[in-house]
Design brief:
Structural class: alpha/beta
Largest sheet: 5 strands, parallel
Number of strands: 16
Radius of gyration: 27 Å
Number of domains: 3
Strand content: 5-15%
CATH topology of the largest domain: Rossmann fold
């Protein structure tokens, strides 16, 4: 959750306090609701999804004990435990605020307050909520965080959260470098099989001669060179999850053998007559477009039905809006630590150039580009000239999973991205080529979050 997407409820019986906080927060958050009467809290939090409630500890009355604030804090936490509560109090009542922290409040601030401190407190709480939400939803993949606040990635996370606890077979679709393997691992880590093996096989890289021996195993003497028994990947994954990557690249003959094993739920190693029962959760991934998978000359329809109980489509990085900036901060921090470079800041043109690139290699390309930038940077401010995009990625841009959109917004956005990349982020030159004013281009950059 970021500050601009936050929804905040302020409860205080002082109209001046409500107005001051509302004026402070309204320009920087998505939604602010101000309420004088604490008796309306229950109705408000039931009808609205507030991320934070800013709650006064004392309301109208001759005796200000702070008990009103503690009562409403407990009421909020009981009704909406995921909602963070920040307490407001006078300096003399700090002990009561500390009691509130013990009762579950996220933080407190003292009146009169400093605006910067309030914004810092809210930002910290939202950041902690975001981290906790990811852990709750299983968005940690073996220690690797799956980063993304965009609507497109949130849809992926919702689907992942729903499908992970089941044993449904999953087909993950997406371009190269979008993170299909991370999603597969996250599904396993969030499943009931997370304490059992997770076995990954790049089936697209297996030759016909290796396909059966690698997947199904073999007995000693089954063929020349088989000097001992070997367990296949299916058997190794028994009880856990088998992840077959690049499944769209296997030939029809191998698809038949794979289908037989999946239908019978058992595997027979080469050189053996004894079938081994299988209890696996199957996850497959491919960068091949759905229309290619639907072509029976290239992929068996009965196999598609077998592996595709649920499909998850991973969006390309160019369609993920502000995720590019978030990922950039993550990778730069990661490589700065790895290469003992200290912390980095971003020149505004650095981010503009990043967003103007269409990243045919997706997150993987972004990662390598930023690693190179950190290594080659002359100081702790990354500039646009520190970004060098691979000519290999540009010349080998895959069309495997790309589909041309006729949506007018998509066409306009892609045109802007193309021209900005051509002119290396120069807005004046880009606006001139597009036939619009600089102001009009800036409006469109803001519209598409570029």
């Amino acid at each position: 959750m970021t500050l601009k997407n936050a929804s905040i409820l302020i409860v205080d019986d002082d109209s001046d306090v409500l107005m001051a906080l509302r004026l402070l927060l309204k320009p920087i958050v998505k939604n602010v609701v101000a309420e004088k009467n604490p008796n309306n809290i229950t109705t408000l939090i039931q009808r609205n999804a507030f991320d934070i409630v800013i709650l006064d500890m004392n309301f109208s009355g001759l005796v200000h004990t702070g008990n009103e604030g503690i009562f409403w804090l407990n009421s909020i936490k009981k009704s909406k435990p995921e909602t963070a509560v920040i307490l407001m109090t006078a300096y003399a009542d700090i002990d009561l605020a500390i009691k509130g922290l013990k009762e579950g409040a996220a933080d407190f601030f003292v009146k009169p307050w400093k605006n910067e401190k309030i914004i810092e407190t809210i930002t910290t709480i939202l950041s902690e909520k975001k981290s906790n939400d990811r852990k709750t939803q299983g968005l940690q993949s073996s220690g690797t965080e799956i980063i993304g606040d965009s609507a497109e990635m949130q849809d992926v996370f919702v689907k992942l959260h729903k499908v992970a606890p089941t044993d449904a077979n999953v087909l993950i679709l997406g371009e190269n470098g979008t993170g299909k393997d991370l999603i597969a691992r996250a599904i396993h880590d969030s499943s009931n099989r997370n304490d059992k093996p997770f076995v990954k096989v790049d089936v697209g890289a297996l030759t016909a001669s290796l396909f059966e021996s690698e997947l199904f195993g073999y007995k000693k003497g089954a063929f020349t060179g088989a000097s001992e028994d070997r367990e296949g990947r299916f058997e190794a994954a028994n009880g856990g999850t088998l992840f077959l990557d690049e499944i769209g690249n296997i030939p029809l003959g191998q698809q038949v053998r794979l289908l037989t094993v999946l239908q019978n739920r058992q595997v027979t190693p080469l050189g053996s007559n004894t079938a081994i029962p299988l209890d696996i959760r199957l996850i497959c991934a491919t960068n091949v477009a759905p229309e290619v998978l639907a072509d029976e000359k290239k992929f068996r329809k009965d196999l598609i039905y077998r592996i595709n109980t649920v499909d998850i489509i991973i969006p390309p990085l160019r369609d993920r809006g502000t995720d590019i900036t978030e990922l950039a901060h993550h990778f730069v921090s990661l490589y700065a630590e790895k290469y003992n470079k200290g912390s980095f800041k971003f020149d505004p043109n650095f981010i503009k150039k990043l967003k103007a690139h269409d990243f045919p290699g997706n997150v993987r390309e972004l990662q390598y580009v930023l690693e190179r930038a950190v290594i080659m940077a002359d100081d702790n401010v990354l500039k646009s000239e520190d970004l060098v995009f691979s000519s290999i990625e540009r010349s080998t841009k895959t069309k495997n999973f790309e589909t041309s959109s006729l949506n007018l917004d998509d066409i306009e956005k892609n045109a802007i991205l193309t021209v900005l990349e051509k002119h290396k982020g120069n807005v004046s030159k880009s606006a001139k080529e597009l036939g619009i004013t600089r102001a009009a281009l800036y409006r469109r950059l803001d519209k598409y979050e570029l």
